UniProtKB/TrEMBL annotation, chains A, B, C, D, E, F, G, H:
CDD domains: SGNH_hydrolase_like_2 (cd01834). Residues 11-201 form the SGNH hydrolase-type esterase domain. Keywords: Hydrolase. The keyword Calcium does not apply. It holds the Pfam family Lipase_GDSL_2. InterPro entries: Ester_Hydrolysis_Enzymes (IPR051532), SGNH_hydro (IPR013830), SGNH_hydro_sf (IPR036514). Signal peptide: none annotated. This is SGNH/GDSL hydrolase family protein. The keyword Hydrolase applies.
Length: 219, 219, 219, 219, 219, 219, 219, 219
């Protein structure tokens, strides 16, 4: 298990991360972590590793792109000084190109996306005692020739390149969902192919926890 | 893994099971399984074993005792004809003795509790293709000399005796929580020592899934 | 223009037709026709052909399949005795197979779908002074190899076969959307690929109105 | 078709234009364009001319007069720099003289109305790549001797004079409604003779679209 | 003053009478009489003639026609056995012909209107110790050539004929409003020309009170 | 009739005046004048004297004392520059001494009350083209020996003295109510002996209108 | 202390007793006893005499008269078989005569009041193991010549006569309030002179508890 | 009785004190004192000692620790200049250590707690004409070996030491509850062992009132 006693684990991202978390804190009792994968991760950590006392914080905000993350990076990431940071961003960067095609000012193109994410990684990684985990954005579409899926895959590749270049942990959420989608039609997991059910969130959760060495069978 | 392709897995119980599930169905998309351990079990099954297509149904109702379960057994258990049945009941049977001491008609004493549960088990077990799982009631109190904890332990022992007598699967939720409570003070898991946080529900979830042979590391 | 002065034009279907119409009447002022294609059809008829005084009635209900239509046929179609009847049904018949795969009792298979629709057509057509229009169900997915799109196409073919056999008017909504989807990504028209924006509804509206000989340029 | 690929088409006006649009943006998905003629125009453009990708923006605000438009002209018209601008204003300028006769500070008299509108036109027209469309205010009253109808007609004439003087496109909404009112009593279209039903809005929509060369029968 | 000590004065009608009265009683404190002319009449009676203790009851219901009154006559008029009865009905009988022209089943034609009202009068008048007051329906439109105003005037004439034939008190509300409309444009009194402001209701109130001999200047 | 064509008549006071009026304007359609005596006065003026076009404005605010009036005098009285001003204040000045006896900072004693009111009168009267009407505060208690009634009477006397000294119109609301209370028990008019029913408000209305020469029987 | 271990103490009455209690049970945790004197009595009993385990039940219902009590006596008093019964009724029997003077069917005159109360007492007293306590109705008015106070005193005398005749405990709530009203003006305790503040309820509470021998200073 | 005529008695604390009091004032009618012990104290004072006119003020705020009290001391204690001050604080100082163990910045350790409380006492005591009452924090847990109970007892001891050192009145709420808990299981008084029912609040109330010499039996 890579997470150590007393460490702070902060997640930042968009609506997939947010899931109605308490704002602005993003931590505490009574559902403060929201109803998505962050809450599932916390539940599994507190249930299996209660002795570690990992402090989980959720800083996701609905609709955000990497451009929005940059604007609140100081407040929401640097100032809380986490030991571990997990970033999953990019779905809205891509989606707006497809659902609001006439509003280019809301589109974050690949170049800006990659440069901004890279900047955030380089600024932050040295400050982390634990580690930096990058999770790819995803799209619950099995047809790889689909236009939006293709674009999402490009953004996902950018994330992987940054992870490799800066030696970050990488979680390929698209790959994890692809396995699940072999058995389940996308509409079972998400009517809009973006916002997963609890079963979809658990796929993210499990992919993340495998990356940090979580052991389900720990006594 | 003991659950087989296409089987129906039905949970019945009180508020710990209910957790704001859709009524009366207790299944479907959009949070129909509620926000407790039943939803977590489903999320893990659909995420790790999507090929099995397990049908999870939640028939918990807030505040119910075994007396209430009996009254709706035909409608909520026999008629839906599940393959697997999971029963967790007894917390309110005990709790009312302690929070409403002047209202004896709301107390389900041990004798009635055990006889009723046994009757439900004997009537139902032969109809199940899969299995019958009994989960003990629990109380998030570490002091074994506490009056309500002592009573709850007696009810838990009755569940175990029935499980043994009729060869049911048993999940000792109290034992599972006891491990977690070695590290966490009860107020972290539940302000009222009864209704757990997501982290508490996950302890039930994991205890149940171990019993049915769930493999987190399945490829 | 095939619609004649004083005729009653009744639409029946699912949520695409319903769109928050007034219930149970389905007609009147103040948005009683809902916010979908039925309201657009009415708006165009009253604007371009006010002298005809066409009476438009909306009997769509969210989530309905052809099985539900049959159950309310007497009340909602026979009793109001329309001159023209327009049926668009089948999306939920198919969708439930893909978003609730474990609940087969909610799936209306092709055979039942076709037989039921045929029965409704044969019973009703003789009673209509005007005409009977069948509109195919649709799915806003451009990949014809997509599982749900393939199934939807099969149901659409069944509608066309019935239309041909009984000499009904046919509106191929899928074909109409396919044209629009050459230019617009599905997410622009409908986040869930089923419930269209106003721009999507207008595509149904125009396809329907062309079928009944509506003339936009009428003086 | 006068509208060209990628152009921005901005509507400004009062409650007839507003119709519960998203504020302050006035564009986007999920009903952001409101429920009136602007939404209908957009629906017809995206349905018939999806390849043009026209960007429609709604800047109507309930209760506004030309005096209010002037106050927000910089923010709501100049700054968004549309290619096409459509102005329909004047109903409240007149109406307040009739429903609040004792509050003269809320009345915009004809002289101020015409001078202000002319000023807005002269300032803006040079900035438009596409065109400037003036739509007359209207009153759903068939009696031309009615006091408020007479005043409204005077304001409508002012709009036409400005359109002619500055070579703008003109849409005579009163004339369009007059045709419809030959068949329908005003109360069918609008209980208050001002806020039209969907069928009334469609009359505005069709009058506007004819002006810009929209072709309903385009393949 | 024709009203005598301790008499019950019951008003029945449509939305002009209803005005959000308490249902089903239609009397009592805390605004139980609604916010329209019935409340004003009561306020003036209790203020100027408190010693009479007149009991005022409001049985108006929104949207009702004379056909609806007949259906509830036994319950709402005969059973409460008033001393005085005031009927104002007919606006919806006429209005539906103009705002819902395609729904003839909602139109109460003049013949049915007159016969029904006459039947109600003949049945009830003998039971009244005080008197029966008929108030004409009205339309806040000054143009006597307006189609709906013309129809309303015909219905008003029918009321007057019945009043004369059966020797009832008559209140010509249309005539009273005509005076007020010489000075005020209809939109000042009612945006829809039907539902008056407090100032419009007071015109009904004063017309009624004059009929029963109310003396404002009573010491 | 002392009110002249086109004059503005402004009422200021506490909750008896306020009655849920539109804020901050205090005038307009759709119930902007509230539901109390101000609305009744306006209704009677517009109904009987529509040709005068009197502009009625309501500036009452719940809970206010004369101290509060002074604080907003510039904004709510001087700036709107009425022709006629009507002041009814003092109930809360007295009431707080009886319902919150331990909070002396909320009590406005007689001396402060009289001096403040006098100051407001002297500042304002010269600016009024029409007239200044002072209405006494009142208490719906018939027992003149009641402590609060006695205090209220003292405040009422102060109002009368100021009216006499500065030659203002005076409306003795207490006297008007005393007549009504000979017949009706206080609880019929107001459960708290302060906030009157519509019948109570009408007593204020009639007392005021008599003062300004209103003629109910005007043709 | 007259209340004995394990006894059930049931209160029945009107809104003074009700105070938003849980319905229909009238007992339990979480404010089920309402916010009035019943809750205060319970709080003092459970705080000072926790060893007695007195079961307190609240069966008050807003607006009820003795006529209403009779109608629900079997359900709300006989069936729950209390050991002690406390009745406080009569305020509405009197009040309706004063706030709704024109509705005599809502007035319960003294004769009916006394006979009905006497009937309830004679039927019930033999069934009570503990005792029967009658509490007089009251009116927070210090002027004994006040009409409603006089009537209330008559009803109170009737209660005392019944108490004496049948040897019941009597609580003179009016007398208790009279002491408090020597120091506090009625408006401090109750704006409507009927529904007391917490301080007023405590006066009832203390008067009741003195009657049953409660000892505040018990160790 | 130590409280004297006209004195102001101010309570400050956390949610046990707050109980939904009016904010920011914390005094007045209509439940402004909340629903907890402060309201009970006031009710008993106004009921038994109405002639004293004690002014009770509630400045409790949910969730506050002694650190929060210090931050608002000037505004909420010094500025209102009470004669008597009652402080009950510390529950959240302790609780956060047990329910949010991973958020140390929310824990107020014993040293800070004691020093801060001592500072507040030394600053304030000289300004009080009446007296300063310290109430210990409490935990409704009977097991003295329970971790949180042990910590709470330490904080309680600190309060007692300060009380002794500075000669304040002391109320040992834990001791008072311990008596009640001999008979009642904690869940009867408070599901979370912290927020008492009305019966629990009364135990605080009685303990406080005994300290200031309140006499229940005063005539």
């Amino acid at each position: 298990m890579k997470l150590e006693k007393g460490q702070k684990l902060l997640f930042i991202g968009d609506s997939i991360t947010d899931c109605d978390r308490a704002k602005p804190e993003g931590e505490g009792n009574f559902g403060a972590l929201g109803t998505g994968y962050v809450s599932q991760v916390d539940a599994l950590l507190q249930s299996v590793y209660p002795e570690l006392g990992i402090r989980v914080v959720n800083k996701g905000i609905n609709g955000h792109t990497v451009r929005n993350l940059k604007a609140r990076w100081e407040t929401d990431v640097i100032k809380p000084s986490p030991d571990w940071l997990v970033i999953m961003i990019g779905i809205n960067d891509v989606w707006r190109q497809y659902d609001l095609p006439t509003q280019p000012e809301k589109h974050v193109q690949l170049k800006e996306y990659k440069e901004t994410l890279e900047e955030l990684v380089t600024v932050t990684k040295p400050k982390l005692n634990g580690g930096l985990v990058l999770m790819t954005p995803f799209y619950l579409e099995t047809n790889e020739a689909d236009a939006m899926r293709k674009t999402m895959d490009e953004y996902g590749r950018a994330v992987k390149e940054i992870a490799e270049k800066y030696n970050c942990q990488i979680v390929d959420t698209q790959a994890a969902f692809n396995e699940q989608l072999k058995e389940l039609y996308p509409a079972t997991l998400a009517w809009d192919r973006v916002h997963p059910s609890a079963a979809g969130h658990m796929t993210i959760t499990r992919a993340f926890l495998k990356t940090v060495g979580f052991d389900w069978n720990k006594a």
